[in-house]
Write a structure and sequence with these properties.
By secondary structure, the protein is of the alpha+beta class. It has one domain: Fumarylacetoacetase-like, C-terminal domain (Fumarylacetoacetate hydrolase, domain 2), CATH 3.90.850.10. Helix content is 26%, strand content 27%. The protein has seven helices and eleven strands.
Amino acid sequence: MRAADGTTLTHKCEAYANELYGALRNGRTVSPLMERDPTLTIDDAYAISLATLARRQADGERVVGKKIGVTSKAVQDMLGVHQPDFGFLTDRMWVTGDIDVAAHGLIQPRAEAEIAFILKGDLIGPGITAEDVLAATDSIAPCFEIVDSRIDDWKIGIVDTVADNASCGVFVLGEARVDPRGLDLPALHVTVTKNGEPLSEGYGSAVQGSPLQAVAWLANTLGAHGVTLDAGDVILSGSLVPLAPAKAGDLFEMELHGIGRCAARFV
């Protein structure tokens, strides 16, 4: 069996892909991969992620974008993962109303406020710059990504989270669509409330100094594996704030000041 980048998957990676796919579909967790096999590499993790994605696509899911995660120091310190990760967004992960925890198979969700990029042009790494990202962007939008781990108790290392599609669950976009040209993206300010109470705040600079740099990193990292960022893709550029646990009954609201608002209601 071959991954999308042409590499041959080992039987071990195929077995882990089957396990994570089953965990996703059955709403359960598995023990950390690195605890069981410390020899696993980032390349192995990427092969597992692609193989799991192929199983989802065989079920009819369609890729609508990509995501970068663990970009801010606050999130890195919280999870103990000290480099960014990456994953894929599918149409079934894009929520347009309330988030039904059971229906979406969420296990241990956490909410994080982000800036989403909607692309109008392709970004094919390596060699992509922040200026290239800006030129390829149609608009930005306020966004909640609901991260969720299929690894027991969020006991993740970088290999575990990459293999598990960057611990992505679902995502919600606010209605605003704003042209980013002329904006100071590192200075964009987000404030977040949970159930009407102030929760956190952050700035665009939290993600690698600028969301543009974060998306460029994603394009270059995925490009090394033969994966591109494509016109029409939604790109999640990383959390601006610490991620917060969520459960049925919770309401998270964010304001990306000067851009717009987004809400994530859990039922």
